[in-house]
Design goal:
The structure is a homodimer of 401-residue chains.
Chain A: H1 15-33, E1 36-37, H2 38-45, H3 49-61, E2 65-67, E3 81-84, E4 90-96, E5 100-107, E6 112-119, H4 125-146, E7 154-161, H5 178-182, H6 185-193, E8 197-201, H7 202-213, E9 222-227, E10 231-237, E11 240-241, E12 256-259, E13 262-265, H8 267-270, H9 272-278, H10 288-297, H11 304-325, E14 329-334, H12 338-348, E15 366-368, H13 375-389, H14 393-396
The first copy, chain A, binds a DNA duplex (30 and 30 nucleotides) through helix 1 and helix 3.
Protein name (chains A, B): Sugar kinase
Keywords (chains A, B): Kinase, Transferase
Region (Disordered) (chains A, B): 1-22
DNA sequence: TTATTAAGTCAATTATCTTGACTTATTACT
DNA sequence: AGTAATAAGTCAAGATAATTGACTTAATAA
């Protein structure tokens, strides 16, 4: 006689939620616009001067902002601009890839202060977990050597690895990292570091990085098409990373393409993995990156066919993304060698006609993102920083269960 | 010497924002769970009993909730459940389609109280605008005849029509409604009705309807695949309709399919329009709906080929949606005749393997939505009601500019 | 030199949620 | 039957954080 299925409801909010939101909004405004005076902040956020003053004082006490030289601009009292203090917070970012793992320490503004890399032994998590924990510990202690108080200002550890997550049958598909998917990674890292740990897939991390310091900075609707070992899309929707119901949103690499009479996942045709296969190269070869860069920049005809099909498929993907998401811009990111990315971008154009062709566009339809092998780790670190400081709905609500 | 580009920032919030959010959260909880006591609400929303009591009193004064018979359930004082009052608010929904326009009056719970339909003369907005305004006025006065105080409780007019919006070259594409796109519809309706007017495309409206009273009720991540004259997807992401940067998100009908050696927009192959073309039927024929229903239910072999290709394309679309959005469920909606929808659903299965196949699923991957020609108008009306009463980020912020 | 303008502060006020003690109504236990 | 336990809900005071309007400060324009 128990009719009590759990009651579902969104969480309410209170004064603390209000003030937390207002603090975040001010930090966000400083991040997007650079230094601003209290009066500027009041106008921009629609808060009163007094409220802004109170919050600025609090942020200054917390070491998150500081004042700069007053600037005279016409009549009236000169304004005192405030800016974010880079050393106000730090985060560790960790990228786990097929054959390599990278860790970075990043500050509030997204500058990378420490970076470290290690090869991942083929044994999977059983041996890899220790490598990863050592790498993180190393980065952390190096950071502590560079800046004081870094430990107390560490907001978390962000992890990025190829998705999708939580799928059953990925055990022996070499396209996925089956063994890692089953491993209790978050628990291990939380226990091993004592930090707040978050996880995203590599495309999402690339998008998070672009939003913090790249082409998506200050944008509310942007999609990063990530070309790496696999292919994914990192979705910035309404100013936040969109994760989907199970954290797998954007796994566009598994979208099916119909070509040559059969259906093939996109990432079997246009990813680096497909290029390795096309070249019969060993993905674990440490010189491969440089080799491919040479091939691409040297105009080796042996790579042209692959570039052509891949570009055609990416052109289609961009059209699809524009059609489905209606973003302000699409950003081409990836861990591909720079020369290859340039060749791809050149080969992708001109873009297919789409609803993105509209009067009054200010942003290009397609932009190159960061071509830096560290950008995924940077994005991983940007996760905890965003969670701690960016305005978003969940941050207003009372602690979610 | 003017370096002042506008400062961009999100809006802050204040006490009013807090209380507005908490009111919305309580309304949402009552909508999802049915009647709840103050104590239940306090637990579910994580607000204090006292706060809940205050807000409930306010909502009761406003006529949005009322109390029911106290229920004894075990020890302790019996609880008094509160429920939403259907007559607490009303909205008008307007669907503008190619050859017909429909208007409904809907209450707070999404029940349709009044419905009216009119043919749209081929002249476009120049003659159609009056038809529409008359239709709305008629529905409105009928509503006033049924319930008292309906006018003061009218929260707005929601409009649904085929997208995409704001595109240049749609003037003579017969697949779009070019003339209507250029017409200042919102301004005309605002001026003609004095109501708050909102616009969404028909797929979005279908999703809004499913979320209020259909298969997406209480879900935070659901995608409605809408098969009508065109094809679109209505996106419920993070519990809200996602619109994209320009209100055109989800226009999946323009996604390109590669088949038979050429690329074709999805909606040229799987929409009702494509069926009309396949049958060489006149879309303006008022008997067409019934005729197609007969064809589909009678098992006429003449329609089989179309159903087969359309189902294959829809199967692919569902796979794409699952892959890209990672929703809790996909809902097949549309203005197609019921027999046709049933045939399509039967022909679509089995679904392609995707990341949506996971242990512990509770919802089906694909569900049928409302098969009611009035559901788009209902969804249009659900727009203003959601804007007025559902919890969402924007509602917390101070008036956006 | 003075009026004007804009930035920023001060002190009182207001809106709203929280707290903890209290009341009420019911069932469970002895 | 009487009493303890439990849960719903109220009361009144308190805490938090934004708002208001007058005021101060510091610059330029006339």
């Amino acid at each position: 006689m128990n009719d009590s299925r759990p009651i579902r409801a969104k969480s309410g909010t209170n004064h603390e939620g209000t003030s937390a939101h207002n603090r975040r909004v001010m930090i966000d405004a400083l991040r997007i616009n650079g230094a601003l005076s209290r009066a500027d902040l009041a106008r921009a956020t629609r808060l009163t001067k007094q409220t802004v003053s109170n919050i600025i004082e609090e942020l200054e006490r917390d070491g998150l902002v500081n004042s700069q030289e007053a600037v005279r601009k016409g009549r009236g009292q000169p304004s005192t601009p405030y800016r974010l203090v880079p050393e106000g917070a730090f985060a560790i970012g960790l990228q786990i890839d097929r054959h390599v793992t990278r860790a970075v320490a990043v500050d509030l503004l997204g500058s990378v202060l420490v970076r470290a890399e290690a090869g991942l032994p083929p044994g999977g998590p059983s041996t890899g977990a220790k490598v990863i924990l050592d790498l993180v510990a190393g980065v952390r202690s190096k950071l502590a050597g560079i800046v004081q108080q870094s430990e107390t200002r560490l907001v978390g550890l962000g992890v990025a690895m190829p998705g999708p997550f939580g799928i059953d049958g990925s055990g022996d598909d070499p396209w996925m990292m089956g063994a890692w998917q089953k491993f209790p990674l978050l628990e291990t890292l939380t226990a091993g570091t004592g930090l707040d740990v978050g996880l995203q897939n590599d495309a999402a991390a690339a998008a998070t990085a672009e939003r913090m310091v790249g082409a998506a900075h200050g944008l509310d609707h942007a999609v990063c098409l990530f070309v790496g070992y696999g292919i994914g899309a990192g979705l910035i929707l309404n100013g936040e990373l969109y994760r989907g119901a199970n954290g797998n949103a954007g796994e566009i690499g598994m979208a099916l393409l119909f070509a040559e009479g059969k259906s093939t996942p996109l990432e079997h045709r246009a990813s680096l993995a497909s290029l390795y296969q096309y070249l019969s190269a060993d993905p674990a070869d440490p010189d491969l990156h440089a080799h491919i860069n040479d091939l691409a920049s040297g105009g080796d005809p042996g790579i042209d066919t692959w570039i052509e099909t891949a570009a055609a498929d990416l052109r289609w993907s961009i059209h699809l993304i524009e059609t489905i998401f209606d973003p302000q811009t699409v950003i081409l990111c990836g861990s591909a060698p720079e020369a290859l990315v340039n060749r791809l971008i050149a080969a992708i154009g001109p873009l297919l006609p789409s609803i993105a062709e509209r009067r009054g566009r200010t942003l290009p339809r397609l932009q190159p993102g960061m071509a830096d092998p560290w950008s995924v780790a940077l994005g991983a670190a940007a996760g905890p920083i965003g969670r701690a400081f960016d305005p978003h709905f969940a941050a207003i609500l009372k602690d979610s269960r």
